[in-house]
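Progress note, sequence design subtask.
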């Protein structure tokens, strides 16, 4: 692999080009449609349907065939257009996972409008902030979640209702304009529909970043960004090479999250898969769904994987998981003990891992086989069509193999920018298209990416830098620790010192001193844990990332979790 210049040679082993100080993906590039005037919905609907069933509601058993999905998308987009939804408008969806979620998203995006999603667990105040920022002209939500939009002034369409319930229809504080069912079944009016031309560079989605290192910001993803992600999904899973029995995914990932939206609510339609949808996570319901619907692909976060390994014998006695072929893990790299423990308990099921951000449309790096995942601790190799740089955060100098710095990414999935925040966009995106991820990383000699820590989350102890993730990984090796998080605790004398939040394993009486002594024997003095709090669980966001800022706030306020 080489650039046009004879001197710009790419090392085939690491993917590193010394001339440009750039790492090039070793995977085959994903093709993008040559037609620039195509939207994500049209692109997906033109793909062949390998399975007849698109979505299954795990709770009710209700199904949606591919033909039913596309008929509903066409009808809803017509109704939305008749209601005045146009290119550039923003439409909000506030809903748990649902087989109707994709219909709303695909219909909105087909018109050139932007879909913005929000977490159903968010408070009314948090949702009001997003509404004030994104200014949606319409909202889709469920009857149960209507109170969170009270006083928002946004017209509401109810999901999963045949007609507007009488107790809501007369409520003066909310403006309910109909139901999804009514809009899908509405007869086309006499006025012809005028569909504006939508191109790949137009905005498609407005998803708010997790805000783990600052205030939440709206990330603008283009149709091109989403098509690139969909092509990566198709390329990664190659479902056209699988038999029909091995094309079923279970969706535990929230559809309001970038990965859930682009992969499970939209992208897997392009791959011809069947998606089993759970509205909420319950381990028993999840395992029953895998057993009942013969699920072959199971996305999860590391804590679920830990539970599967720790309770494998009981689980296998109660549930038939013989259909599983691949586990898709994200949120944090997996260690050797967990990977090998799972491989021993569930032989024949490969573990795949992934790394991505909302700003990169959930694309960055991945392991695509168990062999690749056995590069223990890695996030994987660069995704197709992706380039990367490792940049020294102090000098700005691009670094090489096995050197740690901030990861920069460039490729067709990198966002357009932050919504109405030009300064934040300018500080995150360079003029030549590089996304500054804020993650400290390095690439090894084989081209595998290793995430060391968040750049802004480094603990500064007497000027020394202490990566919390390193201490967390160490704590998780303790036989009596089920989960852990490490935060910087402010101190007048040393600046900050590492504090650990620890979840004991059932029946353990592990003490604070035992935790600190365990760490002290393994790390340099400046990295030692100097304070411990025991908790029932570690707070994490939808993608499995530790909500470190929440823990810092709790620790410094003196309150309890």
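Output:
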């Amino acid at each position: 692999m080489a650039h046009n210049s004879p001197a710009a040679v790419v090392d085939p082993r690491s993917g590193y080009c010394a001339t440009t100080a750039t790492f090039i993906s070793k995977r085959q590039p994903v093709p993008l449609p040559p037609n620039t005037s195509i939207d994500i919905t049209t692109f997906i609907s033109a793909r062949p349907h390998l399975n007849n069933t698109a979505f299954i509601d795990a709770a009710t058993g209700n199904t949606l065939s591919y033909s039913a999905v596309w008929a509903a998308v066409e009808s809803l987009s017509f109704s939305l257009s008749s209601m005045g939804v146009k290119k550039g408008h923003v439409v909000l969806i506030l809903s748990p996972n649902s087989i109707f979620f994709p219909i709303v998203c695909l219909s909105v995006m087909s018109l050139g409008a932007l879909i913005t999603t929000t977490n159903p667990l968010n408070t009314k105040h948090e949702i009001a902030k997003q509404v004030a920022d994104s200014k949606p002209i319409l909202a889709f939500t469920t009857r149960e979640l209507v109170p969170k939009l009270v006083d928002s002034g946004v017209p509401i369409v109810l999901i999963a209702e045949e007609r507007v319930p009488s107790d809501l229809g007369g409520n003066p504080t909310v403006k309910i304009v109909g139901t999804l069912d009514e809009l899908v079944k509405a007869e086309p009016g006499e006025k012809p529909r005028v569909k504006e031309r939508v191109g790949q560079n137009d905005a498609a989605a407005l998803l708010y970043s997790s805000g783990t290192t600052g205030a939440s910001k709206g990330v603008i993803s283009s149709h091109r960004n989403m098509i690139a992600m969909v092509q990566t999904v198709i390329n990664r899973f190659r479902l056209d090479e699988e038999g029909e029995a091995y094309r079923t995914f279970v969706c535990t990932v929230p559809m309001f999250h970038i990965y859930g939206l682009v992969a499970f609510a939209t992208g897997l339609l392009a791959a011809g898969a069947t998606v089993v949808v759970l509205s909420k996570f319950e381990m028993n319901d999840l395992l029953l769904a895998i057993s009942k619907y013969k699920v072959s692909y199971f996305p999860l976060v590391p804590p679920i994987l830990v539970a599967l390994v720790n309770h494998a014998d009981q689980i296998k006695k109660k549930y038939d998981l013989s259909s599983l072929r691949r586990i898709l893990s994200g949120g944090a790299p997996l260690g050797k003990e967990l990977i090998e423990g799972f491989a021993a308990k569930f032989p024949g099921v490969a573990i795949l891992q992934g790394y991505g951000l909302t700003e990169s449309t959930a694309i960055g790096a991945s392991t695509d086989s168990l062999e690749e995942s056995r590069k223990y601790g890695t996030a994987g190799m660069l995704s197709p069509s992706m380039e990367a740089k490792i940049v020294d955060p102090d000098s700005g100098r691009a670094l090489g193999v096995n050197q740690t710095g901030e990861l920069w990414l460039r490729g067709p999935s990198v966002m357009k920018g932050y919504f109405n925040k030009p300064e934040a966009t300018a500080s995150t995106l360079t003029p030549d298209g590089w996304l500054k991820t804020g993650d400290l990383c390095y690439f090894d000699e084989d081209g595998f990416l290793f995430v060391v820590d968040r750049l802004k989350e480094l603990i500064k102890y007497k000027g020394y830098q202490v990566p919390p993730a390193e201490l967390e990984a160490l704590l998780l090796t303790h036989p009596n620790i089920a989960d852990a998080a490490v935060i910087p605790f402010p101190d007048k004398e040393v600046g900050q010192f590492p504090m650990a939040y620890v979840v004991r394993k059932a029946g353990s009486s592990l003490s604070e001193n035992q935790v600190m002594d365990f760490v002290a024997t393994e790390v340099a003095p400046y990295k030692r844990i100097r304070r411990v709090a025991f908790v029932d669980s570690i707070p994490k966001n939808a993608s499995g990332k530790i909500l470190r800022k929440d823990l810092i706030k709790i620790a410094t306020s003196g309150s309890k979790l």
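Residues 66-82 form the longest helix (17 residues). Work on this subtask will continue into the next period as scheduled.
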